[in-house]
Amino acid sequence: MHLKVTVYSTPSCPWCRKVKQYFKSLGIPFKDVDVSKDPRKAEEMYRKSGQMGVPVVVIGNQVIVGFDKAKIDRILGIA
Fold first, then answer.
1. How far does Cα 37 stand from its chain's mean position?
2. What residue stretches are annotated with the Glutaredoxin domain (predicted)?
3. Domain boundaries, the chain
């Protein structure tokens, strides 16, 4: 199953780096959206997640706030 993965992040966020490294370690491509550089993308992230904290991960139509490895694995079918 191929799901579109988007990570909303900022360069200074350590958990953002960890979640992106996790996807890289799994060989899963993802779109990295730097919300610190684009207010429209920050608003998009807020509409999807209901909050302004990063990281926000969107896998398919599932929204994950923070680096919730168990939830990511479950959605990806690798739990």
1. 16
2. 5-64
3. 5-76
The CATH code for residues 5-76 is 3.40.30.10
Rounded to 5 degrees, φ, ψ at 29 are -70, 145
Q: Using CA atoms, how far apart are residues 64 and 34, in angstroms rounded to an integer?
A: 16
Query: Residue type at 30?
Result: F
Which pLDDT tens digit goes with each residue over 7-16? 999 999 999 9
The DSSP bridge partners found for residue 7 are 32, 57
**Adjacent-strand bridge partners of 77:** none
